[in-house]
Amino acid sequence: MPQFLDTAEPGFEAAFRALLAAKREDAPDVDATVAGIIADVRARGDAAVIELTSRYDGLDLTPETLAFSAAEIDAACEQVLAEDRAALELAAERIRAYHSRQLPEDARWTDATGASLGWRWTAVSAAGLYVPGGLASYPSSVLMNAIPARVAGVEHLVICAPTPGGVANPLVLLAARLAGVDRIYRIGGAQAVAAMAYGTETIAPVDKITGPGNAYVAAAKRRVFGKVGIDMIAGPSEILVIADRDNDPDWIALDLLSQAEHDQSAQSILITDDAAFGRAVADAVERRLLTLERRDIAAASWRDFGAIIQVRDLDEAVTLSDRIAPEHLELCVAEAEALALRIRHAGAIFIGAWTPEAIGDYVGGPNHVLPTARSARFSSGLSVMDFLKRTTLASMTPEALRAIGPAAERLAISESLEAHGLSVRARLDRLNEG
Amino acid sequence: MPQFLDTAEPGFEAAFRALLAAKREDAPDVDATVAGIIADVRARGDAAVIELTSRYDGLDLTPETLAFSAAEIDAACEQVLAEDRAALELAAERIRAYHSRQLPEDARWTDATGASLGWRWTAVSAAGLYVPGGLASYPSSVLMNAIPARVAGVEHLVICAPTPGGVANPLVLLAARLAGVDRIYRIGGAQAVAAMAYGTETIAPVDKITGPGNAYVAAAKRRVFGKVGIDMIAGPSEILVIADRDNDPDWIALDLLSQAEHDQSAQSILITDDAAFGRAVADAVERRLLTLERRDIAAASWRDFGAIIQVRDLDEAVTLSDRIAPEHLELCVAEAEALALRIRHAGAIFIGAWTPEAIGDYVGGPNHVLPTARSARFSSGLSVMDFLKRTTLASMTPEALRAIGPAAERLAISESLEAHGLSVRARLDRLNEG
C-alpha cells in the first residue's frame, strides 16, 4: 500500500516534505572505475574499447566489427514483425512532425543607432546517442533521441548500444534506421561514452552525447561534460495524476502502474479531491498488481514511493503539483485545459482522461526524455534545441560606434580593463579625425 | 612573442593541434573542501555562512546584515559618478532590448487525428547570480546575468557578492538595482552557492544559479547541479580575429590585447591572409604592451597562448575558425557579412572593423557570457532561454486515441511494459464498447 496523505490533517506538511525529499536512488560510486576506463580509452583507443567489451559484455570484436554492418542491420530489420514496424513508423512520423515545429528562427535587425544585431542558430556537427542494453533497450528512446538530432540538422549521428553476449534488439536497429542514424556501435558502458567523447582510430569523436544509461554511463557523461555537451542525467521516472471522482479508477490505476513498472525507484502519485475515489484507485492498483507481468517491480515502487494525496480542492492540487514539479503530469479533471494553464513546473502535461501518459512515451509526438527529480523547476525535456546552438551577431557602423562607444569605453575604465577601452577609443579617434 | 603558424608549412597541422589542445587552466582540486562547506551550510544554515564569511572574507555579519539594506544600496548608488551611471543605464537598456527579442513563443495545434499538441514556456521561479569580489567584480556581468533573468520573468532574483573586508563595489550595487535584483547578499565562495541552492533561515533557496567565480565557486556549482540548474562553468576568455591587410594593425592589436588583459590564461589568436600584416600586428602588440596598465597579465597570455596564423585564403580561415570554435570571433575583412554566414561554431561574431569585441562586452546588446574552451561546438551564450523551461502538452480526443493508441500499445508490448499497454487498451476497449 502507498502512503495516504490528506492536506486537512495536521501532519500533512511534514509528511509531504518527507515525500518530496525521499531519496529514491542510491547510485553506487563508480567514479574511480569510470575515470580509469576513460583514461584507458583515451590512451589506447580501439584496443581498450575492444578489451573492455570483451570483459564486460562477453563479446569479442575487432575494429572492423565495432559497428554493425549494413547487412547485419538489414537482416535484423527483416526480423521485425510488420505490425511492430508499422507502429515504429507511426511513432517516428509523429515525433518528427512535433519536433519539426521546434526549429527556432534566426533574427537580425537594425536599431536606432544603426547597429545591426541578431543571432543565428546552427546544428551541432556530430552527436552520439547511448542506448542501454538488456531490458532497458527501448526502441522508443532511439526515436526520441535521434529524431530531434536529425531535425536539428546534425550531420553525423551515431549510436552506442551494448549487445551483451552478442544479442542485439532488432527493434533498436530498425528504430535507428528509421531515425536516420549513420553508425551503430555495439559497445556500451563508460568505454562507449569515452570513445564518443574522445574518439578512437575507428570511432570519430562527437560534440554532444545524449541518452540514458546505468551508473557507469551517468558517471562517464558527467566526466566528459565540457569536452562534449551532454543532456541531463536522468533519475528514476515519475508520474503525478490529478484526478477527480468522474474517472474510472482502473484507468488511473493503470496510469500510475505504467510508471511504477519501470523501476522500483519510480514514483507514482495521485492527487484527488475525493477520498473515496482515492481508495477506489488504491484498490484497483492492488487488483492489477495480482497479474501484472512486472508486478514485483511495480509493487515495490508503489509501496515505497507511491502516494495518494487528498486535497480540499483543485487549487491545492495546483500548488502541490508545482512543489513536486513532476516529470509527467496527467490532468483527469473536468476543466483539464484550464487547470493545465495554471501549472508552472512540469516536464509534460497529459490533458484529459483520454490521454494516458503511455501515449506520450510512444506516439504522441512530444519527447519522452523529460526532467526528473523536481528538475522541471529549471529544465526542459529533450528537444531540437539540445542539438542546436546560437551564435550572436553584432555589426556596428561608424555612426553606431559613435553613439554607444563612449559608454563602452567608460565602463571598461571603471572595470580597469584599459585595452578594452582603448580598442574602442582608437576607432572613435579615427572618426573624430575624419 | 606569440606563436607564428603558417598553413603552408609542413608542420602546421601538428602545431595547430597542439594550440587547440593547450591546457590553459590548471584549476586546483578544491572539491573536498567544497563538499565540506556545502555540508556545513546544509547542516547549520546562517550560522555556517556567517562563520565562513568571517573566516574567508574577514567580515563579521549577522542574519540581519547578510543582505545589503536598501539604505546601504542607496548610499552606494549615490557615490557613482553621473557619467558611469549613464553608461550603465545605456548598457542596461541595450541589453534589455536585445534579450527581449529572445522570448520564445508557446505553440498549440491540432493534428489530423484530432490530437491537440504543443508546449508552453514558463520562467524559473527564483534565480541566484554569483558576482565575484575583488578585481573580477564586474558591473557589466551583473547586467548580463540579471537582465535575461528578469526578461524571462523570474520572480525572485538575488545576488551573492563577497565583500572582502567589507568593501563593496558601488557600480555592482547600482547595476543590480538597474537590473531589478531583489536582494544582494554580501557573501561569496562555496558557502554562497550552497546557501542559494539549499537555502538557510535567512536566504531562500533558488532554482537556478548563474555567474562566474573562482575554483571554489565552480566546484560548488558542479556539486549543486541537479538540485538546482546552473549555467556553464566558464573557462578563460578567448578571441579569434580574422583580418585582412586593409586594417589598422593597432586596432587589431588592441582587440587581441583586450582578451589577453583579462587573465594570463586568456587566449588571443589572429588569422590573416597577409604575412606582413600579421607581423605588423605583432609589432603593434609589443608597442602597446610597453604602456598597458595590465601589461604583465596581457604579456603572459600573449606569450604563452597567443598565436598569429597565416592562411592562404579566407576559406582556410573559416575551416580553422570552426575547429577553434572561438568564444569571440571578430571578422575584419572586406566581405565580413558573407564570411559570417559561413561560420558554424562561435559564441559571438563581431562583424567588421568598426565592431571591436569590447563593444559586445558592454553595450552592444548580446550577452557577454559565452561558451569557452571550444564548447561553442555544442553550447550557446547565456540568454533568456536559460531562465525558461518548456512544458510539453498533449490532449487526445477519443478519435485521436483510436487512431494512434494501437501503435502505442504495440510498442509497449514490444518493450515488455505491460501496464503501459494496458493503460491504452482499457480506454480503447471502452471506445469499442461505446
Question: What does it look like?
Answer:
- The structure is a homodimer of 434-residue chains.
- Chain A is α/β, with parallel strands linked by helices.
- Chain A has three domains: 3-25 and 235-364, Rossmann fold, CATH 3.40.50; 31-107 and 123-230, Rossmann fold, CATH 3.40.50; 396-433, no CATH class.
- Chain A is 47% helix and 15% strand.
- Chain A is built from 17 helices and 14 strands.
- Chain A has helices at residues 12-21, 31-44, 46-57, 70-79, 82-100, 139-152, 170-179, 189-198, 215-224, 249-260, 275-289, 295-305, 314-324, 336-342, 357-362, 398-414, 418-433; strands at 3-6, 107-110, 116-123, 126-130, 156-160, 183-185, 208-210, 229-230, 238-243, 267-272, 307-310, 328-332, 348-351, 388-395.
- In chain A, the strands form three sheets. A six-stranded parallel beta sheet of chain A has the order 1-11-10-9-12-13, with helices on both faces. In chain A, strands 6-5-4-7-8 form a five-stranded parallel beta sheet, with helices on both faces.
- In chain A, β5, α7 and β6 form a beta-alpha-beta unit.
- In chain A, α2 (31-44) packs across α8, α10 (249-260) packs across α11 (275-289) and α16 runs antiparallel to α17.
- The longest helix of chain A is centred in the first third of the chain and has 19 residues, at 82-100.
- The radius of gyration of chain A is 26 Å and the shape is globular.
- At the A-B interface, α5, β3, α10, α14 and β13 of A face α5, β3, α10, α14 and β13 of B.
- β13 of chain A pairs parallel with β14 (388-395) of chain B, so a sheet runs across the interface.
